[in-house]
Design a protein that fits this description.
Oligomer: homodimer
Radius of gyration of chain A: 24 Å
Helix content of chain A: 40-55%
Number of helices of chain A: 15
Strand content of chain A: 25-35%
Largest interface: A-B, 56 and 56 residues
C-alpha cells in the first residue's frame, strides 16, 4: 500500500483525487497495488471541507502531515517556490518519496532536491512537470535508454503555441490574440511567464538534464519569448513554407550542452509544424532509434493529474515489492552543473526583417554589412509595408554562427535609414 | 547482473549485441546495472564465429543454453513460430524471463506464453514487437495508467505506409510502387504478410489486449490489406482532403472490443495523415489524458534493437533490486479471450467507388439501392475513366452500420451495368 499525503486541492490536486477514486479498484485488481489517500492538505478549512465530508483525513498543517510516519509519499501540487521547496526537502529528510508537477521549483531548486533524494535512495518523480499528457520523462528514462538523444526540439508551452497557431491561422497580430487568449482562459492575466519563454526554459532545463546526463541550470539557458513576433513575420514564414513555433532546444555537443528557448522557423514538412493550439510535442533525434515525436495535451486538469497518478502507480509498483534504486537520479549528475554552449557559438540559418526608410542605397549598405561579416545570403526580399515611406527588407541567410549574425544585425540597426530594431528569428534547420 | 542468453545473430540480434557493447559501461555507471551477454546462440558455427572470435561464449544448441542455470533471461530474436515457441516455453519453465520482438509468435501463442509467465512470476517483455522505435508498450503499461484508452488508431506496418505514401506523392499505381519497394528493400519478395495486413493485425491484437485489459485473439480481428487500393482511390481521397492509410484500430465498446485492420480515409488535418514513408505512429484517445500521438521508426536494425535493450534495462532494474510482479500480465487477462465486436456491427462513413457501363439509369438504380438500405448520401460524384464506355461513380455515405453498407454494395455489384466489384473504404471519422 502506498500512503499518499497530498498538498493542494486546486485544479490538478482535485483531478488527482478524482482519478484515484475512479481507478483505485482497477489498480488493486490488475496491478495488486493500493493507492491510499492518507491525508489531503490545503491552506484553509474551506478547501478541505468537501474531502472531509467524504470521509478523508484532511489537514491544513502541511508540516505536521509531512512529519507523520503514516505517509509514504508527498504529492506536492500547491505551486510556487518557497513553501513547496521547504515541504519537499522536509519530506525527503523524513524518508518520504516525492511526486510533483512543479517544473519551476525543480528547475530552480533541483540542485538541492535531487542530490538529497539520491543520498536517501528516494524517488522524486515529475512526469506531470513537462508536457502534462505526454509520458516524455518516462520515455527518456526508460523507453529510450537503448539510444543516446542527439537532439531534442519541443513545443512545451500551450499558451505560446495557442497564440502562434491562431496568429498563423487567422492572420491576427500578437496583442489581439493574446487578449482573446486571456478572455478564453488560455493565457494568464499576467502572461509574462509564458510568453517570454520562462516556463519553456524551466521544462527545457529538465529535459536537457535527462538527455545529457548532467544538471542543466535553468538560469544559464538563453531565452527569447514570442511577444515581438508580428503578423508580418508569420505571413512571411508562410510564404517561405514555414510556421513559427516557440521551441525548447537541446543539442549534444561533445561534453557541453546546447540548450535554449527561442522562436523558430519550422519547415511545414517537419512533424512539429502541424502541432497546433494548446497541444505540446517533443521531437527527438537519437543515435540508434532515429527520429521520434510524442504529441499530447500539455496542460489541463485531467492530463496533468493523469501524469501524477502514473508516477504514483510506478512508485507503488517499485516500493511494494522491494526497494529499487530511485530512477531519475540515475540519469543525470545532479552535483555538477553542465557547461552550456554560449548562444554566440551556436549556428543557424537566420531570418532578418529590417524596417528601413525607402531610400536609395539601403540595400547596398545591408548587403555590404553582411558581406563584411562573411554572411552568405540565401534570399533577399523587399516588401512594401502599410507605413508610407518605409519598406521591409527580409534576408534569409545561409547557416552562420550567432556571433556573426549578431554583429551584422547590430551594424544594420545602426544605419541611419533603419526605423526600428530588426527582427531576428532562427530556422530550426 | 543480468545474464543474457541471446538467440539470433541476424539484423536485430546483431544490433542488440552492438548496443550492449556500446552502452554497457554507461549503464553500469549511471544505473548500477550490468548487462552481461552470457551466451550468444545461432543455428550455425559460421554465424557465431565472429562473436566467438571476440571472446563471447557462443552456442549452436539453443536448448542447452536455455537449460543453463547461468542464464537469467532469454532474448529470442530468431523469428518464426515453432522453435521460438518451444524455446520461450522452455525458458519460462526453467524460471527465466523472456524478451522478444516476435509479434507474430505473441499474437499466435500469447495464450500459452503469458499465463505460464504469470504463473511463474516472470516477465515477458516485447517493446520491440510493436512500432520498433516507439516506446508504446511502456507508455500503455506505465505512462498512461492514469487514463483509460477509449480508442487507438495506428500505422504500424512500414511497408504498407511506404507504398501508400509513394502512391500519394507520386501518383503511381500499387504494383509499380510495390516493385520499386521490393527493389529498394522496403518490401519482402513475398509481401503478402505485410500488404494483406496480417503483420498489422498481429500488432493490433497486442495493442488491443493492453488497451482493453483482455486477451484479444489475432484470428478474430477483421483484416483488409492494401493490395486493392488504386491510384484513382488515392487521387479521389486527395480531392476530398484525405490520405489513405492502413490503420490498426481499437475502440472500447462496453465489455466488448472493437479491433480491426483496414485501409482508411484519414482527413489531412488529422495527426496521422502526415505520418509518411516507413514511419509508424500510434494515436490514442484517452478519458483523462485526451489525445496523444507517438511517432517513430517502425522497424530497422537499430531502432528495434534499441527497444530490446530498453526491455533488458527495465528487467535488470527490476530484478537487481528485489523481485517485483511481472508487468505485462497485470494489464490484461490472459486466460479469457475478449469478445470482439463483429465488423458487421461497426459503423463508419463509407467511400464506394463503383465502376459501371456508361448507361442511362445506373445512377438511379444505385441511389435507389442506397435508399432501400436507409443509407444517406453525403456526396456523389461521377468520374470519367480512361476505359471508354465505363464511368466511375464515387459515393460518400453518412455514418452507417457495416452490415447495411455491405448489403447495399452487394446489391449494387449485382446490377448488370456494374463492370467490376466496387471499392469500399471506411473513413476514420
Amino acid at each position: 500500500m502506498l500512503r499518499i499525503g497530498l498538498i493542494g486541492t486546486g485544479t490538478v490536486g482535485g483531478g488527482v483525487i478524482a482519478i484515484i477514486e475512479q481507478k483505485k479498484a482497477e489498480y488493486r485488481e490488475k496491478l495488486g497495488i493500493d493507492l491510499e489517500l492518507a491525508c489531503i492538505c490545503a491552506k484553509t478549512d474551506e478547501e478541505v471541507a468537501p474531502y472531509k465530508a467524504k470521509g478523508y483525513t484532511v489537514s491544513t498543517d502541511a508540516d505536521a502531515m509531512i512529519a507523520n510516519p503514516d505517509i509514504d509519499v508527498l504529492v506536492e501540487l500547491a505551486g510556487g517556490y518557497n513553501m513547496p521547496r521547504k515541504w519537499i526537502l522536509a519530506a525527503l529528510n523524513a524518508g518520504k518519496h516525492v511526486v510533483t508537477a512543479n517544473k519551476a521549483l525543480l528547475a530552480k531548486h533541483g540542485h538541492e532536491i535531487f542530490p538529497l533524494a539520491a543520498s536517501k535512495g528516494l524517488h522524486v518523480l515529475f512526469e506531470a512537470a513537462v508536457g502534462g499528457g505526454i509520458p516524455i520523462i518516462r520515455s527518456l528514462q526508460e523507453g529510450l535508454v537503448g539510444s543516446t538523444v542527439e537532439s531534442l526540439s519541443c513545443i512545451i508551452n500551450g499558451t505560446c503555441n495557442y497564440i502562434l497557431s491562431r496568429m498563423a491561422q487567422e492572420g491576427l497580430d500578437f496583442d489581439t490574440v493574446l487578449k482573446d487568449a486571456q478572455r478564453l482562459g488560455f493565457a494568464e492575466a499576467d502572461p509574462t511567464f509564458d510568453i517570454e519563454g520562462i516556463d519553456s526554459a524551466h521544462k527545457t532545463a529538465l529535459l536537457a538534464s535527462l538527455c545529457s546526463g548532467h544538471r542543466v541550470d535553468f538560469e544559464k539557458i538563453h531565452v527569447t519569448g514570442i511577444s515581438k513576433i508580428t503578423a508580418q513575420d508569420i505571413a512571411i514564414a508562410k510564404e517561405l513554407g514555414c510556421t513559427i513555433k516557440l521551441l525548447g532546444i537541446y543539442n549534444r555537443d561533445g561534453d557541453r550542452v546546447d540548450a535554449r528557448v527561442h522562436p523558430c522557423f519550422v519547415p511545414q514538412n517537419h512533424l512539429l509544424s502541424s502541432v497546433n493550439r494548446v497541444l505540446n510535442a517533443v521531437y527527438l533525434n537519437c543515435d540508434n532509434l532515429g527520429e521520434t515525436l510524442q504529441t499530447g495535451a500539455g496542460a489541463g486538469r485531467m492530463p496533468t493529474a493523469s501524469a501524477v497518478v502514473a508516477d504514483l502507480v510506478s512508485l507503488a509498483r517499485s516500493i511494494d515489492t522491494g526497494k529499487r534504486a530511485a530512477l531519475p537520479m540515475g540519469w543525470f549528475n545532479v552535483e555538477n552543473s553542465a557547461t552550456l554552449v554560449p548562444i554566440s557559438e551556436t549556428s543557424a540559418r537566420y531570418y532578418f526583417r529590417i524596417t528601413s526608410r525607402d531610400e536609395r542605397g539601403v540595400l547596398a549598405k545591408i548587403t555590404g554589412i553582411l558581406a563584411e561579416n562573411s554572411i552568405s545570403i540565401e534570399t533577399i526580399i523587399q516588401k512594401d509595408v502599410n507605413d508610407p515611406g518605409n519598406v521591409s527588407i527580409v534576408v534569409i541567410t545561409e547557416k552562420v554562427q550567432d556571433c556573426r549574425a549578431s554583429k551584422a544585425i547590430d551594424a544594420i540597426n545602426a544605419l541611419p535609414e533603419i526605423v526600428e530594431n530588426s527582427q531576428v528569428i532562427r530556422f530550426l534547420a
